[in-house]
């Protein structure tokens, strides 16, 4: 049997741990494994090489993806999907494992609809997929954001300021929510919650009246740019307000314990399910268990906003 693996879309810490788990589990089970470079772009171009036990040595702890990644516009077309399916056939790749986010999983579904055998693994720092509690890379991104918040807090305290910290997340505010909770942010601005800036500023001022010397506002990028918020918050509170966009630092770095384990479990189980001829699924972690869910069904599962965490964060940061 021959399988292929690719990483696609935005990279995420833990993708390498996942590739390693796939390659080693495959070889252990006498399955040939090919690495497809640069995501769907590399698949379209036949940029494909066999992988060995040694090609994945020493990558467990590395951020990024050794297979590299891309966002291919051509792949998103019918012609692109057809061409990709042909390349898989040409290389004798019977099963394909796709590690990536929402767009990548939709690509896997399109390939499956053309008859390809695929298994998806959720890898994105955004944690924006409804079918799994956690995606590979999210925990590391939150840990990076948390480290930044702690540092920003030091200087924000010294100067008695407000600091707006912008993190990634276009439609999903999970990075801001989880880092905001663990970093004790005084206010959260998330795409899932209607923003009432007057109420936020009132809250910041009430905290100041009670003796708070500084405040952190977590902002998910989907709600706008931190610069605009700084101007408005400073105007309304009359407190000097600075801002920081954490940017791509959130996508890099050595994966956390949780991401390495999540990636290893998902990679291992993806290969085992292929060995059992159970494909057309995505790997998920739900309530602590690992399972495969049919791709189409999985992609229809809505992402549930953790209102309970939001409410708790609001109480704890008064
Ligand atoms: O990986 C997800 C994500 O980081 C989003 O939060 C962000 O908006 C986007 O990717 C940016 O990615 P790029 O600039 O690499 O296309």
UniProtKB/TrEMBL annotation:
Q: What are the EC numbers?
A: 2.7.1.11
Phosphofructokinase domain: from which residue to which, for each copy? 2-271
Subcellular localization? Cytoplasm
Q: Which prosthetic group or cofactor does it need?
A: Mg(2+)
Give the record's pathway. Answer: Carbohydrate degradation; glycolysis; D-glyceraldehyde 3-phosphate and glycerone phosphate from D-glucose: step 3/4
Listed A to Z, the keywords are: ATP-binding, Cytoplasm, Glycolysis, Kinase, Magnesium, Metal-binding, Nucleotide-binding, Transferase
Lineage top rank: taxon:
Bacteria
Which reaction is the catalytic activity of this chain?
Answer: beta-D-fructose 6-phosphate + ATP = beta-D-fructose 1,6-bisphosphate + ADP + H(+)
> Nucleotidyltransferase among the record's keywords?
no
For this chain, the family text in UniProt reads:
Belongs to the phosphofructokinase type A (PFKA) family.
- Read off the NCBIfam families from this record: PRK03202.1
What does this chain do? Catalyzes the phosphorylation of D-fructose 6-phosphate to fructose 1,6-bisphosphate by ATP, the first committing step of glycolysis.
In terms of PANTHER family, this protein maps to: ATP-DEPENDENT 6-PHOSPHOFRUCTOKINASE (PTHR13697:SF4), PHOSPHOFRUCTOKINASE (PTHR13697)
What is this protein's name?
Answer: 6-phosphofructokinase
Q: What are the leading ranks of the lineage? A: Bacteria, Bacillati, Bacillota, Clostridia, Eubacteriales
